[in-house]
Here is the input.
Amino acid sequence: MGVTQVPEISVGSCDRTMPVIGMGTSTNPPPDPETAKAAMLEAMRAGYRHFDTAFAYGSEKPLGEAMAEALRLGLVKSRDEFFITTKLWSSFAEKDMIVPAMKMSLSNLQLEYVDMYLIHWPVRLSKEVTNMPVKKREYILPLDIKSVWEAMEEGKNLGLTKGIGVSNFSCKKLEELLSTAKIPPAVNQVEMSPIWQQKQLREYCTQKGIHIGAYSPLGAYNTKWGHNRVVECDVLGEIAKARGKTPAQVSLRWLYEQGVSIVTKSFNKQRMRENLDIFGWSLTEEDSERIAQLPQKKGLLFADVIGPYDISLEIDAEI
Ligand SMILES: NC(=O)c1ccc[n+]([C@@H]2O[C@H](COP(=O)([O-])OP(=O)(O)OC[C@H]3O[C@@H](n4cnc5c(N)ncnc54)[C@H](OP(=O)(O)O)[C@@H]3O)[C@@H](O)[C@H]2O)c1
Here is the structure.
């Protein structure tokens, strides 16, 4: 089986280009490290160079092992061929903890720098939080965006990451961040798919030069936090049939045509390759119009993950 060449794009203030599709690494529960490492190596063989991990996923170490192995095997010539995104966990979202958290992720990944470091969630969690949902309201604290972002900028200036950005940030939170940021966020990674198209947020981010990274592009099909409304969508199914593709490919192609980057997870050899086969063909204008009209529903709600507290409900309600 061949190796797909994935197109790369510039993303705002990031010092290097990003492959438009990346391999997600979030599973619940986390897989055993050998399974995860083997899946990531298989993804590298298929052509994935962009990997999306996070301290919270427990996937940094197996990804680090897989990268080291890929270098040993000659699957890649140098570390620069990879684009690695990882994320600041909310328990470390405090000014003095951020550079140490970056260094801890680098140590897990066996790297000297990552390519993108994101604030994972727009909240801070106290150290009492060990799992979800959070047991007490007082364990969830507002994020001090100004001081947290200063420390993110420090990490970039120290060379620990090529780019800094955010995840799950609304227009309102981005506005607050931009009012004091010296380095604007390169990326806002958010849920996006044909059934949660993020029109307002995308318009705002385009105006401000912030790139959108789409997560759960297949609606996190068959996961604990996911649903079947993308992969089993009738309209996507009809378009897929007409194009000789699968509904998953139609969703991924549609995202690519919107100019966003994508992170999608598959640890299955066939499906991870299927998900790369989104180049060299396109949707028709009529396909895009049909997709634009799909009913919209958010998949991942903070209130479901953290617990239905005022602060999580507020985040869910912000656009
Ligand atoms: N920043 C954040 O807060 C945040 C939140 C959620 C996710 N993410 C990131 O985004 C990544 C992707 O999102 P996600 O994992 O939630 O969801 P996703 O990529 O939409 O869906 C993944 C699920 O779909 C299945 N799948 C993959 N390809 C398929 C295909 N072609 N046909 C049918 N099923 C397919 C996978 O199973 P198999 O493995 O069995 O193929 C897996 O169960 C995550 O892994 C994570 O890295 C970030």
Summary: Residues 24-26, 52, 120, 167-168, 189, 215-223, 231, 246, 248, 263-268, 271, 274-275 surround NAP (CB under 6 Å). The chain has one domain: 17-317.
